[in-house]
């Protein structure tokens, strides 16, 4: 069997990793499954070492797929310029590429943050450290999954030479309370400019 070939990087993609193709299905008038669309990744660069590819969003839970309502909702969210890391009342699927970590002393390693969401993070390429504000951390490799339950955390590329890639699914959640204290979204460690971009993605 011939080895699978990788897609070349998408136009505008920051990393040298394989390009992404998104395939969305729907139904024809006879109820048969068909492909609605197939499109290359559409990347947004946030820092010189981090870029996002928005795959899909839902705006209700459960989503309404009748008459392709969810497709229309996603397009409205995508073009609104107001999507943050989480889509209130729904979900977000995105791919994030992380550049190699700097080995220089004092160089930034990641962005400590919290979102009001239940997240699944699946490593597709490379090795990534998931670091919590308690100081605990785990090294995740290709195929490993993190279930992120509204905690303060950051992602660090464990390599100083290779790019890494994670696919995230974020689901809006109830407000998080611990010992009577409400824990809200926190992007303050990212810096004002990056936080503004993360709260209103193009």
Notes on the structure:
This protein is mainly β. It is built from two helices and 13 strands, in the order ββββαβββββββββα. Strands 3-4-5-11-6-9 form a six-stranded antiparallel sheet. A three-stranded antiparallel sheet has the order 8-7-10, with no helix packed on it. Strands 1-2 form a two-stranded antiparallel sheet. Strand 7 and strand 8 form a beta hairpin. The longest helix is centred in the middle third of the chain and has 12 residues, at 69-80. It is globular, with a radius of gyration of 18 Å. The termini are far apart. The model has no long low-confidence stretch (mean pLDDT 91).
Total beta strands: 13
Whole-number average pLDDT? 91
Derived from helix and strand composition plus strand pairing, the structural class reads mainly beta
Series of secondary-structure elements, N-terminal to C-terminal: EEEEHEEEEEEEEEH
Biggest sheet: strand arrangement: 3-4-5-11-6-9
Radius of gyration equals: 18 Å
Q: Considering DSSP H and I runs of 4 or more, what fraction of the residues is helical?
A: under 10%
Largest sheet: 6 strands, antiparallel
Low-confidence stretches: none
Number of helices: 2
**How far from one another are the termini?**
41 Å
Assess the beta-strand content as a share of residues.
35-45%
Envelope shape: globular
